[in-house]
Design a protein that fits this description.
471 residues; mainly alpha; two-stranded antiparallel sheet; 15 helices; globular
Length: 471
Amino acid sequence: MKNTIYIFSLILLIFSCDRQEYLDIEPKGRVIPNKINDYRLLLDQTKVFGGVGGAQVISPGFVSSFYNTELASDDVMITDNFLSFYPEGSASTNTFIWKDNIYTDAEEDGDWQNLYGQIYVTNIVIDDVPNAIDGTVKEKDALKAEALAHRAYAYFSLVNLYGSHYNPATANTDLGVPLRLGTELVGVEYPRATVNDVYTVILDDLTEAIKHLPNTPELVHRPSKAGVYGLLARVYLYMGDFENARDAADNALALSNTLLDFNTFPDWFFPDIANQGDIPQNDPEIIWHKESGAAYSAAIASDDYLSLLESNDQRRRLFGPPSIFGLSGPEKIFTVGYVRTFKPIGPSTAEMFLTRAECNVRLNRADLAINDLNTLREKRMDTGTYEPITTTDEDEVFALVKKERRLELYMKGHRFFDLKRYNVYDSQKTNIIHTYKGETFTLTANSKNWALPIAQKYIFQNPEIGENSRE
């Protein structure tokens, strides 16, 4: 049965050549799933690439998530020392300088392709698992719930990558992304739904999913109540609904709240580089495992980011020297993708503490925010050196929350979106300035360019999508 599901997964990612190419993935393999275990194997296919009998197999890979914002934020830089890693005209470099088109007319956008591939498979499970020829109602409801949760995560990623940030005043008219909620293949067009419509689907999916999931997952890549609460905390935070975001973070932490002491991590091959372990299942801070699709990218920490790290902060051990690449220089390279071979970006206990802290300070409970900051920071500072934060001045606490969120969530899929939402909800606006080969590029606060360009390939095939306006 495992082999047949692999074959089915392969067929799912063979895109047709007509105008539905980016979404229509028709199952024409030798086996169509119709048993509970078939659907379980589909949802447990975690990697985009695998193998059966020596052959390469492609699947939607439910663990693999987005990476297109990694080089777009102010947390990274590209120095002349690393130009060979970031040649002019590459997708990575185009992202770094916010070009009008990241990909060539013939290129796939890995984020768009993979996330919509996941959505199509979840739609198959949602529509068909109730009719499975075996299994109990409880088993069917649980698998459907997992599919709903994965679909919500995919749509949340897509709408934040390619849509305007959620703004209650304009969400009913701002363009989001196409909604694909069924498995029809004929006579279907894919106009973009509004940001509000996409968020409505996300919230509906998560609200339904949480009813039928276990409190914590048997395997960390599977959705659970803790994981769905974690995603709800993120969704509500991005919506500016701070009461619901705080409550969701509370609920997630009630089920999963372990923080690891960074002092306990041994060194990796290089001195003073933390080895956090390479098995997601063994990391209790991971509530729901999703990971960046670009685990090994050479991320150079920006001078601005490094200036925030205190000398006794154990998170300095997440960065290494250019000698990792056989180079010399002063840069600091983010090593997690090498030490762990994956970069986790899904809900985590650290994120929940930070989300609850931010919501509390925004809701005029700076004292509670400080408690969460101290709980987290004590696990991140050199043993015996931590001094608790005592200020209750709301402006100071708010600044500390933002600083801590930036430090803790480096390269975990948050910083670009955080700046995007700060620019919508807060009085202080932030521009991002990047330098590449001596030329300066600026992404202005609330520019339309915060919504990433949609690859031309998909617009050619489906003109109703329309392009994102550029400035």
